[in-house]
Protein backbone atom coordinates (compact mmCIF):
# COMPACT_ATOMS: atom_id res chain seq x y z
CA UNK A 1 0.00 0.00 0.00
CA UNK A 2 2.61 2.54 1.09
CA UNK A 3 4.79 1.87 -1.93
CA UNK A 4 1.84 2.46 -4.26
CA UNK A 5 1.33 5.87 -2.76
CA UNK A 6 5.02 6.76 -2.83
CA UNK A 7 5.39 6.03 -6.54
CA UNK A 8 2.21 7.77 -7.68
CA UNK A 9 3.22 10.87 -5.71
CA UNK A 10 0.06 12.36 -4.18
CA UNK A 11 -0.20 16.10 -3.47
CA UNK A 12 1.02 17.08 0.02
CA UNK A 13 -2.45 17.70 1.42
CA UNK A 14 -3.61 14.20 0.45
CA UNK A 15 -1.45 12.47 3.05
CA UNK A 16 -3.47 13.16 6.19
CA UNK A 17 -6.75 12.83 4.28
CA UNK A 18 -5.85 9.43 2.88
CA UNK A 19 -4.54 8.29 6.21
CA UNK A 20 -7.73 9.19 7.98
CA UNK A 21 -9.78 7.61 5.18
CA UNK A 22 -7.78 4.42 5.57
CA UNK A 23 -8.23 4.56 9.32
CA UNK A 24 -11.95 5.05 8.81
CA UNK A 25 -12.08 2.09 6.42
CA UNK A 26 -10.24 -0.08 8.86
CA UNK A 27 -12.49 1.01 11.70
CA UNK A 28 -15.52 0.21 9.56
CA UNK A 29 -14.29 -3.27 8.65
CA UNK A 30 -13.45 -4.06 12.27
CA UNK A 31 -16.87 -2.87 13.35
CA UNK A 32 -18.49 -5.05 10.70
CA UNK A 33 -16.42 -8.04 11.78
CA UNK A 34 -17.35 -7.50 15.40
CA UNK A 35 -21.04 -7.26 14.52
CA UNK A 36 -20.76 -10.46 12.47
CA UNK A 37 -19.04 -12.25 15.35
CA UNK A 38 -21.71 -11.15 17.79
CA UNK A 39 -24.44 -12.21 15.33
CA UNK A 40 -22.83 -15.64 15.09
CA UNK A 41 -23.11 -16.06 18.83
CA UNK A 42 -26.60 -14.56 19.21
CA UNK A 43 -28.46 -17.89 18.79
CA UNK A 44 -26.62 -19.23 21.83
CA UNK A 45 -27.28 -16.10 23.87
CA UNK A 46 -30.95 -16.27 22.92
CA UNK A 47 -31.07 -19.94 23.87
CA UNK A 48 -29.68 -19.13 27.29
CA UNK A 49 -32.11 -16.23 27.68
CA UNK A 50 -35.18 -18.30 26.75
CA UNK A 51 -34.11 -20.97 29.23
CA UNK A 52 -34.69 -18.43 32.00
CA UNK A 53 -37.91 -16.88 30.66
CA UNK A 54 -41.56 -17.57 31.46
CA UNK A 55 -43.90 -18.38 28.54
CA UNK A 56 -45.78 -15.11 29.12
CA UNK A 57 -42.57 -13.11 28.96
CA UNK A 58 -41.51 -14.87 25.74
CA UNK A 59 -44.79 -14.48 23.89
CA UNK A 60 -45.16 -10.84 25.01
CA UNK A 61 -41.91 -9.69 23.47
CA UNK A 62 -40.11 -12.17 21.18
CA UNK A 63 -37.69 -9.45 20.02
CA UNK A 64 -36.03 -9.43 23.42
CA UNK A 65 -32.72 -11.19 23.71
CA UNK A 66 -32.65 -11.31 27.48
CA UNK A 67 -35.33 -12.23 30.06
CA UNK A 68 -37.54 -9.52 31.54
CA UNK A 69 -37.99 -11.42 34.73
CA UNK A 70 -35.88 -14.44 35.50
CA UNK A 71 -37.19 -17.86 36.38
CA UNK A 72 -35.61 -21.25 36.88
CA UNK A 73 -38.80 -23.07 35.84
CA UNK A 74 -37.30 -24.21 32.54
CA UNK A 75 -34.41 -25.98 34.20
CA UNK A 76 -36.73 -27.47 36.78
CA UNK A 77 -39.09 -28.72 34.06
CA UNK A 78 -36.45 -30.36 31.90
CA UNK A 79 -34.83 -32.01 34.90
CA UNK A 80 -38.14 -33.50 36.02
CA UNK A 81 -39.83 -34.26 32.68
CA UNK A 82 -36.81 -36.10 31.28
CA UNK A 83 -34.59 -38.59 33.13
CA UNK A 84 -31.92 -35.96 32.69
CA UNK A 85 -29.25 -37.36 34.99
CA UNK A 86 -29.56 -40.70 33.27
CA UNK A 87 -29.27 -39.09 29.82
CA UNK A 88 -26.20 -37.15 30.87
CA UNK A 89 -24.60 -40.34 32.19
CA UNK A 90 -25.47 -42.11 28.93
CA UNK A 91 -23.86 -39.33 26.92
CA UNK A 92 -20.71 -39.39 29.05
CA UNK A 93 -20.42 -43.19 28.95
CA UNK A 94 -21.10 -43.36 25.23
CA UNK A 95 -18.83 -40.51 24.15
CA UNK A 96 -16.14 -41.06 26.78
CA UNK A 97 -16.06 -44.86 26.68
CA UNK A 98 -16.05 -45.05 22.90
CA UNK A 99 -13.32 -42.43 22.60
CA UNK A 100 -11.00 -44.10 25.11
CA UNK A 101 -11.46 -47.50 23.51
CA UNK A 102 -11.03 -46.03 20.05
CA UNK A 103 -7.82 -44.28 21.01
CA UNK A 104 -6.37 -47.52 22.33
CA UNK A 105 -7.46 -49.70 19.39
CA UNK A 106 -6.50 -47.13 16.75
CA UNK A 107 -3.14 -46.27 18.25
CA UNK A 108 -2.13 -49.95 18.59
CA UNK A 109 -2.99 -50.54 14.95
CA UNK A 110 -1.43 -47.28 13.77
CA UNK A 111 1.77 -48.14 15.64
CA UNK A 112 2.08 -51.48 13.85
CA UNK A 113 1.25 -49.90 10.48
CA UNK A 114 3.79 -47.12 11.00
CA UNK A 115 6.69 -48.80 12.78
CA UNK A 116 6.62 -52.59 12.54
CA UNK A 117 7.39 -54.78 9.58
CA UNK A 118 5.02 -57.61 8.80
CA UNK A 119 3.50 -59.34 5.83
CA UNK A 120 0.27 -57.82 4.58
CA UNK A 121 0.99 -54.38 5.98
CA UNK A 122 0.33 -52.58 2.73
CA UNK A 123 -2.87 -54.52 2.17
CA UNK A 124 -4.10 -53.48 5.60
CA UNK A 125 -3.18 -49.87 4.94
CA UNK A 126 -5.17 -49.99 1.72
CA UNK A 127 -8.16 -51.43 3.53
CA UNK A 128 -7.97 -48.54 6.01
CA UNK A 129 -7.82 -45.98 3.20
CA UNK A 130 -10.66 -47.58 1.25
CA UNK A 131 -12.98 -47.79 4.25
CA UNK A 132 -12.37 -44.06 4.80
CA UNK A 133 -14.33 -43.41 1.63
CA UNK A 134 -17.51 -45.22 2.66
CA UNK A 135 -20.12 -43.05 4.37
CA UNK A 136 -21.40 -44.32 7.68
CA UNK A 137 -24.98 -44.62 6.40
CA UNK A 138 -23.97 -47.56 4.20
CA UNK A 139 -23.11 -49.60 7.30
CA UNK A 140 -26.07 -48.39 9.32
CA UNK A 141 -28.70 -50.95 8.29
CA UNK A 142 -26.53 -54.10 8.49
CA UNK A 143 -25.15 -52.82 11.79
CA UNK A 144 -28.68 -52.47 13.07
CA UNK A 145 -29.38 -56.09 12.07
CA UNK A 146 -26.18 -57.32 13.71
CA UNK A 147 -27.02 -55.52 16.95
CA UNK A 148 -30.55 -56.89 16.75
CA UNK A 149 -29.18 -60.43 16.37
CA UNK A 150 -26.72 -59.97 19.24
CA UNK A 151 -29.52 -58.50 21.35
CA UNK A 152 -27.36 -55.39 21.76
CA UNK A 153 -29.98 -52.78 20.89
CA UNK A 154 -30.60 -50.45 23.83
CA UNK A 155 -27.34 -51.42 25.49
CA UNK A 156 -24.06 -49.62 26.11
CA UNK A 157 -22.04 -52.29 24.31
CA UNK A 158 -24.31 -51.81 21.30
CA UNK A 159 -23.73 -48.06 21.35
CA UNK A 160 -20.00 -48.23 22.02
CA UNK A 161 -18.30 -51.25 20.48
CA UNK A 162 -19.27 -50.80 16.80
CA UNK A 163 -17.96 -47.22 16.96
CA UNK A 164 -14.72 -48.00 18.80
CA UNK A 165 -12.59 -48.36 15.69
CA UNK A 166 -12.13 -45.58 13.18
CA UNK A 167 -10.27 -45.72 9.91
CA UNK A 168 -9.71 -41.98 10.10
CA UNK A 169 -8.19 -42.29 13.58
CA UNK A 170 -5.85 -45.05 12.45
CA UNK A 171 -4.81 -43.05 9.43
CA UNK A 172 -4.27 -39.81 11.35
CA UNK A 173 -2.19 -41.48 14.09
CA UNK A 174 -0.18 -43.46 11.56
CA UNK A 175 0.76 -40.25 9.76
CA UNK A 176 1.93 -38.85 13.09
CA UNK A 177 3.80 -41.97 14.22
CA UNK A 178 5.70 -42.23 10.93
CA UNK A 179 7.33 -38.87 11.62
CA UNK A 180 8.78 -39.86 15.00
CA UNK A 181 12.53 -40.52 14.52
CA UNK A 182 13.39 -44.20 14.17
CA UNK A 183 16.60 -43.85 16.21
CA UNK A 184 14.44 -43.75 19.34
CA UNK A 185 13.06 -47.22 18.62
CA UNK A 186 16.47 -48.59 17.77
CA UNK A 187 18.00 -47.25 20.96
CA UNK A 188 15.19 -48.73 23.02
CA UNK A 189 15.49 -52.05 21.22
CA UNK A 190 19.21 -52.17 21.97
CA UNK A 191 18.27 -51.65 25.60
CA UNK A 192 16.06 -54.73 25.34
CA UNK A 193 12.63 -53.13 25.03
CA UNK A 194 9.98 -55.06 23.12
CA UNK A 195 7.48 -53.48 20.74
CA UNK A 196 4.84 -53.11 23.43
CA UNK A 197 7.19 -51.13 25.67
CA UNK A 198 8.33 -48.99 22.77
CA UNK A 199 4.70 -48.29 21.94
CA UNK A 200 3.72 -47.48 25.51
CA UNK A 201 6.81 -45.67 26.77
CA UNK A 202 8.18 -43.94 23.68
CA UNK A 203 5.62 -43.56 20.93
CA UNK A 204 2.53 -42.72 22.94
CA UNK A 205 4.18 -40.03 25.13
CA UNK A 206 5.67 -38.40 22.02
CA UNK A 207 2.31 -38.52 20.26
CA UNK A 208 0.44 -36.72 23.02
CA UNK A 209 -0.58 -33.72 20.87
CA UNK A 210 -2.03 -35.98 18.17
CA UNK A 211 -3.77 -38.15 20.76
CA UNK A 212 -5.21 -35.11 22.50
CA UNK A 213 -6.56 -33.71 19.24
CA UNK A 214 -8.05 -37.04 18.28
CA UNK A 215 -9.58 -37.43 21.75
CA UNK A 216 -11.18 -34.01 21.67
CA UNK A 217 -12.68 -34.29 18.21
CA UNK A 218 -13.85 -37.87 18.59
CA UNK A 219 -15.45 -37.08 21.93
CA UNK A 220 -17.13 -34.08 20.39
CA UNK A 221 -18.34 -35.98 17.33
CA UNK A 222 -19.81 -38.75 19.49
CA UNK A 223 -21.29 -36.39 22.07
CA UNK A 224 -23.04 -34.58 19.23
CA UNK A 225 -23.94 -37.71 17.28
CA UNK A 226 -27.60 -38.06 16.54
CA UNK A 227 -28.33 -40.73 13.93
CA UNK A 228 -26.46 -43.58 15.65
CA UNK A 229 -28.06 -43.27 19.13
CA UNK A 230 -31.40 -42.73 17.39
CA UNK A 231 -31.06 -46.07 15.62
CA UNK A 232 -29.49 -48.12 18.43
CA UNK A 233 -31.61 -47.03 21.35
CA UNK A 234 -35.37 -46.88 21.34
CA UNK A 235 -35.95 -46.68 25.10
CA UNK A 236 -35.75 -43.30 26.78
CA UNK A 237 -33.38 -44.72 29.39
CA UNK A 238 -30.71 -45.50 26.82
CA UNK A 239 -30.84 -42.28 24.82
CA UNK A 240 -28.12 -39.66 24.71
CA UNK A 241 -28.80 -35.96 25.26
CA UNK A 242 -29.22 -34.81 21.62
CA UNK A 243 -31.51 -37.68 20.63
CA UNK A 244 -33.63 -37.39 23.79
CA UNK A 245 -33.96 -33.61 23.44
CA UNK A 246 -35.02 -33.97 19.84
CA UNK A 247 -37.83 -36.36 20.70
CA UNK A 248 -38.78 -34.09 23.60
CA UNK A 249 -38.96 -31.16 21.18
CA UNK A 250 -41.34 -32.97 18.85
CA UNK A 251 -43.85 -33.71 21.60
CA UNK A 252 -46.95 -31.57 21.57
CA UNK A 253 -47.21 -28.64 23.93
CA UNK A 254 -43.55 -27.71 23.96
CA UNK A 255 -42.22 -25.81 26.92
CA UNK A 256 -39.69 -23.50 25.25
CA UNK A 257 -37.85 -22.71 28.45
CA UNK A 258 -37.45 -26.40 29.29
CA UNK A 259 -36.20 -27.21 25.82
CA UNK A 260 -33.68 -24.38 25.74
CA UNK A 261 -32.53 -25.27 29.24
CA UNK A 262 -31.92 -28.82 28.05
CA UNK A 263 -30.10 -27.56 24.97
CA UNK A 264 -27.95 -25.27 27.12
CA UNK A 265 -27.02 -28.07 29.50
CA UNK A 266 -26.12 -30.42 26.67
CA UNK A 267 -23.94 -27.77 25.02
CA UNK A 268 -22.24 -26.70 28.24
CA UNK A 269 -19.53 -29.41 28.54
CA UNK A 270 -18.23 -28.87 25.02
CA UNK A 271 -18.44 -25.08 25.35
CA UNK A 272 -16.43 -25.26 28.56
CA UNK A 273 -13.86 -27.60 27.04
CA UNK A 274 -13.62 -25.31 24.02
CA UNK A 275 -12.90 -22.29 26.21
CA UNK A 276 -10.21 -24.19 28.09
CA UNK A 277 -8.51 -26.05 25.24
CA UNK A 278 -9.44 -24.30 22.04
CA UNK A 279 -6.25 -25.27 20.26
CA UNK A 280 -7.06 -28.98 20.28
CA UNK A 281 -10.48 -28.34 18.78
CA UNK A 282 -9.32 -26.10 15.97
CA UNK A 283 -6.23 -28.17 15.12
CA UNK A 284 -8.06 -31.47 15.32
CA UNK A 285 -11.02 -30.33 13.28
CA UNK A 286 -8.92 -28.50 10.74
CA UNK A 287 -6.70 -31.52 10.12
CA UNK A 288 -9.29 -34.31 10.08
CA UNK A 289 -12.54 -32.66 9.11
CA UNK A 290 -14.43 -34.58 11.81
CA UNK A 291 -17.25 -32.49 13.18
CA UNK B 1 2.30 -56.85 30.28
CA UNK B 2 1.72 -59.71 27.87
CA UNK B 3 4.61 -61.63 26.43
CA UNK B 4 4.04 -62.52 22.84
CA UNK B 5 4.61 -66.23 23.28
CA UNK B 6 1.29 -67.52 21.99
CA UNK B 7 1.67 -69.12 18.58
CA UNK B 8 -0.91 -67.95 16.11
CA UNK B 9 -1.83 -69.18 12.69
CA UNK B 10 -2.15 -65.90 10.86
CA UNK B 11 1.18 -66.19 9.04
CA UNK B 12 1.73 -69.44 7.13
CA UNK B 13 4.66 -71.40 8.59
CA UNK B 14 7.69 -71.66 6.35
CA UNK B 15 10.73 -73.92 6.60
CA UNK B 16 13.49 -71.99 8.29
CA UNK B 17 16.83 -72.83 9.89
CA UNK B 18 16.58 -73.99 13.50
CA UNK B 19 17.31 -70.61 15.10
CA UNK B 20 14.85 -68.78 12.95
CA UNK B 21 12.22 -71.43 13.54
CA UNK B 22 12.61 -71.03 17.25
CA UNK B 23 11.96 -67.37 16.75
CA UNK B 24 9.07 -68.21 14.46
CA UNK B 25 7.32 -69.96 17.35
CA UNK B 26 6.92 -66.45 18.72
CA UNK B 27 4.64 -64.89 16.19
CA UNK B 28 5.43 -61.49 14.77
CA UNK B 29 3.95 -59.21 17.46
CA UNK B 30 2.77 -56.77 14.83
CA UNK B 31 -0.24 -59.00 14.22
CA UNK B 32 -1.28 -58.66 17.83
CA UNK B 33 -1.16 -54.87 17.51
CA UNK B 34 -3.42 -54.77 14.50
CA UNK B 35 -5.68 -57.60 15.68
CA UNK B 36 -8.14 -55.59 17.84
CA UNK B 37 -8.67 -52.93 15.18
CA UNK B 38 -9.11 -55.39 12.35
CA UNK B 39 -11.31 -57.75 14.32
CA UNK B 40 -13.61 -54.84 15.16
CA UNK B 41 -13.42 -53.42 11.66
CA UNK B 42 -14.17 -56.81 10.11
CA UNK B 43 -17.38 -57.20 12.13
CA UNK B 44 -18.54 -53.59 12.32
CA UNK B 45 -17.21 -51.94 9.14
CA UNK B 46 -16.15 -54.36 6.39
CA UNK B 47 -18.84 -57.00 6.82
CA UNK B 48 -21.63 -54.39 7.03
CA UNK B 49 -20.39 -52.73 3.84
CA UNK B 50 -20.48 -56.00 1.91
CA UNK B 51 -23.74 -57.05 3.49
CA UNK B 52 -25.32 -53.73 2.63
CA UNK B 53 -24.46 -54.28 -1.02
CA UNK B 54 -25.90 -57.80 -0.85
CA UNK B 55 -29.05 -56.61 0.88
CA UNK B 56 -29.63 -53.96 -1.75
CA UNK B 57 -30.14 -56.79 -4.24
CA UNK B 58 -32.95 -58.33 -2.18
CA UNK B 59 -36.43 -57.57 -1.02
CA UNK B 60 -35.27 -57.60 2.58
CA UNK B 61 -37.83 -57.05 5.29
CA UNK B 62 -37.12 -57.27 8.96
CA UNK B 63 -38.53 -60.28 10.82
CA UNK B 64 -38.69 -62.50 7.73
CA UNK B 65 -36.43 -65.52 7.60
CA UNK B 66 -35.84 -65.61 3.85
CA UNK B 67 -35.47 -62.73 1.47
CA UNK B 68 -36.40 -62.81 -2.18
CA UNK B 69 -33.70 -61.97 -4.69
CA UNK B 70 -34.51 -58.87 -6.70
CA UNK B 71 -31.32 -58.37 -8.67
CA UNK B 72 -31.14 -54.71 -9.54
CA UNK B 73 -34.87 -54.40 -8.89
CA UNK B 74 -34.40 -52.00 -5.99
CA UNK B 75 -32.25 -49.75 -8.13
CA UNK B 76 -34.70 -49.68 -11.04
CA UNK B 77 -37.47 -48.95 -8.56
CA UNK B 78 -35.37 -46.05 -7.23
CA UNK B 79 -34.94 -44.78 -10.77
CA UNK B 80 -38.72 -44.44 -11.06
CA UNK B 81 -39.22 -43.20 -7.50
CA UNK B 82 -40.09 -39.50 -7.69
CA UNK B 83 -39.72 -39.09 -3.92
CA UNK B 84 -36.13 -40.30 -4.20
CA UNK B 85 -35.39 -37.89 -7.04
CA UNK B 86 -36.83 -35.10 -4.94
CA UNK B 87 -34.59 -36.08 -2.01
CA UNK B 88 -31.60 -36.17 -4.34
CA UNK B 89 -32.42 -32.71 -5.66
CA UNK B 90 -32.92 -31.27 -2.16
CA UNK B 91 -29.63 -32.78 -0.97
CA UNK B 92 -27.67 -31.49 -3.96
CA UNK B 93 -29.12 -27.98 -3.75
CA UNK B 94 -28.36 -27.90 -0.03
CA UNK B 95 -24.82 -29.21 -0.53
CA UNK B 96 -23.90 -26.82 -3.34
CA UNK B 97 -25.28 -23.74 -1.57
CA UNK B 98 -23.82 -24.59 1.83
CA UNK B 99 -20.37 -25.44 0.50
CA UNK B 100 -20.14 -22.35 -1.69
CA UNK B 101 -21.39 -20.20 1.20
CA UNK B 102 -19.17 -21.66 3.87
CA UNK B 103 -16.03 -21.56 1.72
CA UNK B 104 -16.66 -18.01 0.48
CA UNK B 105 -17.34 -16.63 3.96
CA UNK B 106 -14.54 -18.73 5.46
CA UNK B 107 -12.09 -17.43 2.87
CA UNK B 108 -13.05 -13.79 3.39
CA UNK B 109 -12.72 -14.14 7.15
CA UNK B 110 -9.44 -16.04 6.93
CA UNK B 111 -8.04 -13.25 4.76
CA UNK B 112 -9.34 -10.57 7.12
CA UNK B 113 -8.27 -12.23 10.35
CA UNK B 114 -4.91 -13.60 9.20
CA UNK B 115 -2.89 -11.59 11.69
CA UNK B 116 -2.86 -13.05 15.17
CA UNK B 117 -3.71 -10.58 17.91
CA UNK B 118 -5.91 -11.03 20.96
CA UNK B 119 -8.73 -9.36 19.08
CA UNK B 120 -8.57 -11.54 15.95
CA UNK B 121 -8.27 -14.60 18.16
CA UNK B 122 -11.42 -13.58 19.99
CA UNK B 123 -13.31 -13.06 16.73
CA UNK B 124 -12.06 -16.36 15.33
CA UNK B 125 -13.30 -18.19 18.42
CA UNK B 126 -16.72 -16.61 18.04
CA UNK B 127 -16.92 -17.61 14.38
CA UNK B 128 -15.75 -21.11 15.16
CA UNK B 129 -18.08 -21.71 18.09
CA UNK B 130 -21.09 -23.05 16.12
CA UNK B 131 -18.85 -25.79 14.68
CA UNK B 132 -18.46 -27.56 18.01
CA UNK B 133 -22.15 -27.55 18.91
CA UNK B 134 -24.38 -30.51 18.13
CA UNK B 135 -26.21 -30.14 14.84
CA UNK B 136 -29.35 -31.64 16.35
CA UNK B 137 -29.33 -29.33 19.37
CA UNK B 138 -28.55 -26.19 17.36
CA UNK B 139 -31.30 -27.34 15.01
CA UNK B 140 -33.76 -27.21 17.90
CA UNK B 141 -32.56 -23.73 18.82
CA UNK B 142 -32.90 -22.51 15.22
CA UNK B 143 -36.33 -24.06 14.85
CA UNK B 144 -37.56 -21.74 17.57
CA UNK B 145 -35.43 -18.78 16.49
CA UNK B 146 -37.28 -18.94 13.17
CA UNK B 147 -40.67 -19.49 14.77
CA UNK B 148 -43.18 -16.78 13.77
CA UNK B 149 -44.60 -16.49 17.29
CA UNK B 150 -41.70 -16.72 19.70
CA UNK B 151 -38.71 -16.44 17.35
CA UNK B 152 -36.11 -13.72 17.58
CA UNK B 153 -35.79 -13.36 13.79
CA UNK B 154 -39.41 -12.43 13.21
CA UNK B 155 -39.39 -10.49 16.46
CA UNK B 156 -36.64 -8.23 15.13
CA UNK B 157 -38.26 -8.00 11.70
CA UNK B 158 -41.41 -6.90 13.54
CA UNK B 159 -39.41 -4.15 15.23
CA UNK B 160 -38.46 -2.92 11.76
CA UNK B 161 -42.12 -2.89 10.83
CA UNK B 162 -41.85 -5.98 8.63
CA UNK B 163 -44.18 -8.91 8.82
CA UNK B 164 -41.86 -11.88 9.27
CA UNK B 165 -42.76 -15.04 7.37
CA UNK B 166 -43.16 -18.56 8.77
CA UNK B 167 -39.70 -19.57 7.58
CA UNK B 168 -39.91 -23.32 8.05
CA UNK B 169 -43.57 -23.76 7.11
CA UNK B 170 -43.28 -21.93 3.77
CA UNK B 171 -42.45 -24.25 0.86
CA UNK B 172 -40.24 -21.62 -0.78
CA UNK B 173 -38.38 -20.58 2.37
CA UNK B 174 -37.83 -23.86 4.23
CA UNK B 175 -34.82 -25.09 2.23
CA UNK B 176 -33.13 -21.66 2.04
CA UNK B 177 -33.57 -21.39 5.82
CA UNK B 178 -31.85 -24.76 6.31
CA UNK B 179 -29.09 -23.66 3.95
CA UNK B 180 -28.54 -20.50 5.99
CA UNK B 181 -28.29 -22.51 9.20
CA UNK B 182 -25.94 -24.97 7.47
CA UNK B 183 -23.64 -22.14 6.40
CA UNK B 184 -23.77 -20.60 9.89
CA UNK B 185 -22.78 -23.96 11.37
CA UNK B 186 -19.85 -24.60 9.03
CA UNK B 187 -18.11 -21.41 7.89
CA UNK B 188 -15.94 -21.34 11.03
CA UNK B 189 -14.53 -24.71 10.07
CA UNK B 190 -13.63 -23.49 6.58
CA UNK B 191 -12.18 -20.31 8.08
CA UNK B 192 -9.78 -22.29 10.26
CA UNK B 193 -8.69 -24.62 7.49
CA UNK B 194 -8.07 -21.68 5.15
CA UNK B 195 -6.41 -19.61 7.85
CA UNK B 196 -3.46 -22.01 7.94
CA UNK B 197 -3.27 -21.70 4.15
CA UNK B 198 -3.45 -17.90 4.17
CA UNK B 199 -0.73 -17.69 6.78
CA UNK B 200 1.43 -19.98 4.66
CA UNK B 201 1.39 -17.60 1.68
CA UNK B 202 4.91 -16.44 1.00
CA UNK B 203 5.49 -12.83 2.01
CA UNK B 204 8.24 -12.31 -0.54
CA UNK B 205 5.92 -13.28 -3.41
CA UNK B 206 3.29 -10.82 -2.21
CA UNK B 207 5.88 -8.07 -1.94
CA UNK B 208 7.31 -8.86 -5.36
CA UNK B 209 3.81 -8.68 -6.85
CA UNK B 210 3.27 -5.37 -5.09
CA UNK B 211 6.48 -3.94 -6.54
CA UNK B 212 5.32 -5.09 -9.98
CA UNK B 213 2.24 -2.93 -9.47
CA UNK B 214 -0.35 -5.63 -8.79
CA UNK B 215 -3.33 -4.33 -6.85
CA UNK B 216 -4.92 -6.11 -3.88
CA UNK B 217 -7.38 -8.06 -6.03
CA UNK B 218 -4.67 -9.19 -8.44
CA UNK B 219 -2.37 -10.17 -5.59
CA UNK B 220 -5.14 -12.22 -4.03
CA UNK B 221 -6.07 -13.87 -7.33
CA UNK B 222 -2.57 -14.68 -8.56
CA UNK B 223 -0.52 -15.19 -5.40
CA UNK B 224 -2.77 -16.03 -2.46
CA UNK B 225 -5.33 -18.21 -4.21
CA UNK B 226 -2.87 -20.64 -5.87
CA UNK B 227 -1.13 -21.12 -2.52
CA UNK B 228 -4.50 -21.88 -0.94
CA UNK B 229 -5.39 -24.67 -3.32
CA UNK B 230 -4.67 -27.60 -0.95
CA UNK B 231 -6.65 -25.99 1.90
CA UNK B 232 -9.49 -25.08 -0.47
CA UNK B 233 -9.56 -28.60 -1.81
CA UNK B 234 -9.67 -30.09 1.68
CA UNK B 235 -12.45 -27.88 3.01
CA UNK B 236 -14.49 -28.22 -0.19
CA UNK B 237 -14.31 -32.01 -0.27
CA UNK B 238 -14.97 -32.43 3.46
CA UNK B 239 -17.74 -29.84 3.36
CA UNK B 240 -19.42 -31.55 0.41
CA UNK B 241 -19.18 -35.02 1.92
CA UNK B 242 -20.73 -33.71 5.14
CA UNK B 243 -23.44 -31.74 3.39
CA UNK B 244 -24.48 -34.70 1.23
CA UNK B 245 -25.13 -36.62 4.45
CA UNK B 246 -27.62 -34.02 5.64
CA UNK B 247 -29.93 -35.54 8.23
CA UNK B 248 -29.87 -34.02 11.73
CA UNK B 249 -30.80 -30.51 10.72
CA UNK B 250 -33.86 -31.25 8.62
CA UNK B 251 -34.97 -34.11 10.86
CA UNK B 252 -35.08 -31.72 13.80
CA UNK B 253 -36.17 -28.48 12.15
CA UNK B 254 -38.68 -29.52 9.48
CA UNK B 255 -38.95 -33.32 9.54
CA UNK B 256 -38.61 -33.18 5.78
CA UNK B 257 -41.55 -30.86 5.34
CA UNK B 258 -43.38 -28.86 4.23
CA UNK B 259 -44.53 -31.56 1.77
CA UNK B 260 -41.06 -33.10 1.23
CA UNK B 261 -39.42 -29.78 0.38
CA UNK B 262 -36.55 -30.51 2.78
CA UNK B 263 -36.40 -34.31 2.64
CA UNK B 264 -32.78 -35.35 2.08
CA UNK B 265 -31.34 -38.66 0.90
CA UNK B 266 -30.33 -39.86 4.37
CA UNK B 267 -33.72 -38.90 5.71
CA UNK B 268 -35.39 -40.91 2.96
CA UNK B 269 -33.07 -43.80 3.79
CA UNK B 270 -34.07 -43.55 7.45
CA UNK B 271 -37.73 -43.45 6.48
CA UNK B 272 -37.55 -46.53 4.23
CA UNK B 273 -35.23 -48.48 6.52
CA UNK B 274 -36.32 -47.69 10.05
CA UNK B 275 -39.94 -46.63 9.63
CA UNK B 276 -41.16 -48.82 6.75
CA UNK B 277 -38.52 -51.52 7.47
CA UNK B 278 -37.79 -52.05 3.77
CA UNK B 279 -34.13 -52.75 4.48
CA UNK B 280 -33.19 -53.87 0.96
CA UNK B 281 -34.59 -50.74 -0.61
CA UNK B 282 -32.99 -48.52 2.02
CA UNK B 283 -29.65 -50.23 1.36
CA UNK B 284 -29.97 -49.38 -2.30
CA UNK B 285 -30.50 -45.74 -1.28
CA UNK B 286 -27.34 -45.96 0.87
CA UNK B 287 -25.31 -47.29 -2.05
CA UNK B 288 -26.51 -44.55 -4.35
CA UNK B 289 -25.44 -42.05 -1.69
CA UNK B 290 -22.05 -43.77 -1.44
CA UNK B 291 -21.53 -43.65 -5.20
CA UNK B 292 -22.64 -40.02 -5.30
CA UNK B 293 -20.17 -39.06 -2.57
CA UNK B 294 -17.40 -41.02 -4.25
CA UNK B 295 -18.10 -39.46 -7.64
CA UNK B 296 -18.27 -35.92 -6.29
CA UNK B 297 -15.06 -36.32 -4.26
CA UNK B 298 -13.14 -37.75 -7.20
CA UNK B 299 -14.47 -35.00 -9.46
CA UNK B 300 -13.45 -32.26 -7.03
CA UNK B 301 -10.00 -33.76 -6.54
CA UNK B 302 -9.57 -33.94 -10.30
CA UNK B 303 -10.83 -30.44 -11.02
CA UNK B 304 -8.75 -28.71 -8.39
CA UNK B 305 -5.64 -30.69 -9.23
CA UNK B 306 -5.91 -30.19 -12.95
CA UNK B 307 -6.00 -26.45 -12.50
CA UNK B 308 -2.55 -26.74 -10.98
CA UNK B 309 -1.06 -27.16 -14.44
CA UNK B 310 -2.25 -23.90 -15.94
What does this structure look like?
The complex is a heterodimer of chains A (291) and B (310). With 291 residues, chain A is mainly alpha-helical. In chain A, helix 2 crosses helix 15 and helix 14 packs antiparallel against helix 15. Chain A has 2 domains: 2-71, no CATH class; 77-288, MetI-like fold (Orthogonal Bundle). Chain A has helices spanning 2-8, 14-51, 55-60, 73-81, 84-115, 121-132, 136-150, 156-160, 167-178, 182-190, 195-206, 208-224, 227-232, 241-250, 256-276, 278-288. Chain A is flat. Chain B has 2 domains: 18-55, no CATH class; 75-309, MetI-like fold, CATH 1.10.3720. Chain B is globular, with a radius of gyration of 26 Å. With 310 residues, chain B is mostly helical. Residues 1-13 of chain B have low confidence and may be disordered. The chains are: A mainly alpha (291), B mainly alpha (310). The interface between A and B is large, with 97 and 98 residues.
The main pleated sheet of chain B reads as:
2 strands, antiparallel
Principal-axes shape call of chain B: globular
Q: What's the count of strands of chain A?
A: 0
**Order of strands across the main sheet of chain B:** 1-2
Number of DSSP strand runs of chain B: 2
The CATH class of the largest domain in chain B turns out to be Mainly Alpha
> If helices are DSSP runs of H or I spanning 4 or more residues, what is the number of helices of chain A?
16
Report the radius of gyration of chain B as a whole number of Å: 26 Å
Strand content of chain B: under 5%
**Rg for CA atoms of chain A:** 26 Å
How big a fraction of the residues of chain A is strand? under 5%
Under CATH, the topology of the largest domain in chain B can be stated as: MetI-like fold
The CATH architecture of the largest domain in chain B would be Orthogonal Bundle
**What integer is the average pLDDT of chain A?**
87
| Largest two-chain interface | A-B, 97 and 98 residues
What key phrases describe this protein's structure?
heterodimer; A: 291 residues; mainly alpha; 2 domains; 0% strand; B: 310 residues; MetI-like fold; 13 helices; 2 strands; disordered N terminus; membrane (chain B); ABC_transporter_permease (chain B)
Amino acid sequence: MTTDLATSGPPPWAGPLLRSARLGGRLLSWTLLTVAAVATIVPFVWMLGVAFRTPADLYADPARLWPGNWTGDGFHAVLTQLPFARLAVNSVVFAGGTTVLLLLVDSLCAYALARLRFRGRNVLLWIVLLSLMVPFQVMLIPLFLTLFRLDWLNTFQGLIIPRSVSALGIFMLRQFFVKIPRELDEAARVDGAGPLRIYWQIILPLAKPALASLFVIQFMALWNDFLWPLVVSSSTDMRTLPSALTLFSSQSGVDHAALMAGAAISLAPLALAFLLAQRFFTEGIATTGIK
Amino acid sequence: MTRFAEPMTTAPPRRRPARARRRKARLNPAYLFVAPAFALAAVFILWPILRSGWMSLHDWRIGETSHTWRGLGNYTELWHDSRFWNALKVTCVYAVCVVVGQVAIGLALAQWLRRTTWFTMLLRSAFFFPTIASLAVTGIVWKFLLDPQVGLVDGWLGKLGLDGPAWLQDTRLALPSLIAVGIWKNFGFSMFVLLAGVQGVRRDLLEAAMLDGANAVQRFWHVTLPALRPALLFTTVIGTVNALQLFDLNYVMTNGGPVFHTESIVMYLYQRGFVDFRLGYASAVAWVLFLLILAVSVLQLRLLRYRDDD
